[in-house]
Amino acid sequence: MPTPGLLTSAGWTLDGLVSSGERFRAIPRVPASDPNLDAVLRKHEESGIPLVIEGLHERSGWPSDMFNTDWLRENGQQYIQVRNIHDRSDSETSFEDFLSHVGVIGAYTNEDETCRLYAKDAECPPAWKRWLETVSLIPRRLCPHGPTDIMKSLPESSRVESLMCYLGTGDTFTPCHKDLCASSGHNLMCYTEDDACAFWFMTDSSAAPQMATYFQSLGQELDMESYTMSVEEFAEAPCDVYIAEQRVGDFVFVPPRSCHQVVNHGGLTVKMSWSRMTIAGARMALRHELPIYRRVCRSETYRIKATIHHTLRRDTALLEDYAPTKNGDSREALRKQLADDVQVLLGLLKEVMLDEYHPNAPKLHHVVKTFDNDAYDAEGYPTFHCDFCGSDIFVSFYCCTECPLSMDNMLGVQDGLHICPGCYAEGRTCRCGDPMQPMQCWPFRTLYADYNRAVRALKGIGINEIGEVMNR
């Protein structure tokens, strides 16, 4: 028998798990062939309740010849990063050695075991990515950089690659966590051996604050992604916990801020996973997730403020191109959605501007003195991060040139220590104790101009509720 506290999925079944907790629920499932699939997806996006789309492997276009280990041997990465789930150490190994390890390790861990490897965040083969982009098995709106993913608004050089593969045998796992910056998660089981599966434990979006408090009562921090919960601890959680058994062809939709933990069961499982940022997700990130990241000093990774800004610039340009049409015209529906999005984005940009505002902005030192719209849209400007909390520095920051991180780690933008406005307002500062100097990446008036341009674009189609802001 495993030692107390050792997580193992031995003996697990979906029915057995669901019946073991009063607030355990089976994750709703919908067939991939359901003609109302889009409506079901929208309902779950709005409610924040997870969903499984099942049976994708039974539909025409499923690439069984590509979704297998023989194909990966010939076409995938020859060396992969793996994590030992017992001590959380990371290392590199050959794909062939990893498969050999999986073949001898057995399906379940035990008290004498010291090494069980999990290949997480492995590079997704380009052919798999092309399949995802070109074969319409996955609803297009859920695909990376699809129509609802605002991360595509960023210049390509600024985008973060979220499309990854996960390969693991039974009793490998991902600790309980939320997907980064309130993004929506998507996970497709591509291949299994020996009737393997993965068990998912998930909450809905609204339960995130309750789960964070519950984690603290256990002496843990949810946003550090370092604690693996037992079934008994999930059963004591102060909210509903949704459970699914993911098999080949099952696609799991992870709502923004859903706290979830994945435990592989049986033989080898191979999954493909990616994140998608919606406008609603960006709003949650700005108001809820980024303040948490600043508190626990977790790197932001996804550039939320910059993504909001780039998306507003893109959507404003699109809205300016729409001429008035008759009601019922297909372009009218698209224009209405675009106008709704721009209004939400304006509200978010105003929140960003309040965070970044400085009363003497024109007199501050600017890293880029003349803002080049074409360069910003095509390539973006070089970025850097708060040296205290790791958040992305968008426009404003505080700098001390007397306190570099180290002589071996001098920064390229105003060499010295950089602190975001949020950290500085909370008293986080440099070692020397002198007042840090406020600076900006580029002139703040650019944000005024982009905000007012979007307001004028809305007025051009008859929406007059939002007024322009003054360039102070």
How would you sum up this structure, described in words?
Strand 2 (29-31), helix 2 and strand 3 form a beta-alpha-beta unit. 31% of the residues lie in helices and 19% in strands. The strands form 3 sheets. A 9-stranded mixed sheet has the order 2-3-12-9-14-7-6-4-5, covered by helices on one side. It has a 5-stranded mixed sheet with strand order 1-11-10-13-8. By secondary structure, it is α+β, with helices and mostly antiparallel strands.
Return Rg in Å. Answer: 24 Å
Low-confidence stretches: 407-414
* SS class: alpha+beta
* DSSP summary, beta strand count: 18
Strand order of the largest sheet: 2-3-12-9-14-7-6-4-5
Major sheet details: 9 strands, mixed
Cα shape: globular
β-strand percent reads 15-25%
Average pLDDT score: 93
User: What is the tally of helical segments?
Assistant: 13
Query: How far is the first residue's CA from the last residue's CA?
Result: 69 Å
What share of the residues lie within helices?
A: 25-40%
Entry keywords:
alpha+beta, 5-stranded mixed β-sheet, 472 residues, 31% helix
Describe what is shown at a glance.
This protein is of the alpha+beta class and 472 residues long.
In terms of topology, how is this protein built?
Blueprint: H1 14-18, E1 24-26, E2 29-31, H2 37-47, E3 51-54, H3 69-75, E4 79-84, E5 89-94, H4 95-105, E6 117-123, H5 126-134, E7 164-168, E8 173-177, E9 184-192, E10 197-202, H6 208-217, H7 231-235, E11 241-246, E12 251-254, E13 260-265, E14 269-276, H8 279-296, H9 304-321, H10 330-356, E15 365-366, H11 373-378, E16 396-400, E17 417-419, H12 421-425, E18 437-440, H13 445-459
Parallel strand pairs: 1-11, 2-3, 15-18
Antiparallel strand pairs: 3-12, 4-5, 4-6, 6-7, 7-14, 8-13, 9-12, 9-14, 10-11, 10-13, 16-17, 16-18
